[in-house]
Amino acid sequence: MPLSKPTPEDIKKIHAEVNQIVNQRFLLITIAITVFGVVTAWIVPRTPPAPGSDVGGFVFVITMVLSTLLFSLFLLGHLLKGMLRVFTTYLAVTDSSNWEKDWKQFRQSPYLAYTKPQTIVFLILNALATGFPCILARVYSLHLAPCIGLVTSLGWGVLTEFLMFGMGLLNWWDRERRAEQQWKSLKV
Could you tell me the CA-to-CA distances from 38 to 31, 33, 129 in Å, in that order? Predict the structure, then answer.
């Protein structure tokens, strides 16, 4: 059964869904900033540690947990973007929205909106989280030990940073083309 033209009520419903997803993606940024602030405040020592002592495994573990939380929130935003593309490509394929067609064409040129600024915020938060043990060591004159904690924490932070960069700025695993192809195959 080929795709039929959506009714005005369908378009209103899809528009409401799109707005809801955009708002949810914005809320993820707010949650990420809040989580970052709470977790980093939690691992800052209440009393200054003795200079020359180790940063400690606890700090490295918590920074890895923070990077994991940030990446999870970023991944949820990426999945929401995929869902958003299912709705917006439907509108374009059914010729129900000139805006969606124009917006897709506009996105082919360099621009800075939605996903890119959100990705930049996540990249900054994750970089700060990954570097937090080094910041603590510098501020309190501590040793970056245990070494396995440092290496593991930095490795995990770099991996999550790399994935966020690729997914958010290079469109790795972007669902738009696939969603458009699926809608077009149903249109026939």
Answer: 10, 9, 12
Entry pTM: 0.93
Give the separation between CA 71 and CA 2, rounded to whole angstroms: 39
CA distances from 164 to 112, 159, 175 (A): 16, 9, 16
Which 8-state DSSP code applies to residue 144? -
- List all residues 6 or more positions away from 72 whose beta carbon is below 8 Å from its beta carbon: none
Phi, psi torsion values for 116, nearest 5 degrees = -65, -50
- SS3 label, residue 3: coil
Tell me which residue of 108, 119, 109 sits closest to 177, measured CA to CA. Answer: 108
CB 31 within 8 A of CB 73: yes
The domain segmentation of the chain, as residue ranges, is 8-187
For residue range 103-115, list pLDDT tens digits in order: 889 988 888 888 9
d(CA 173, CA 156): 20
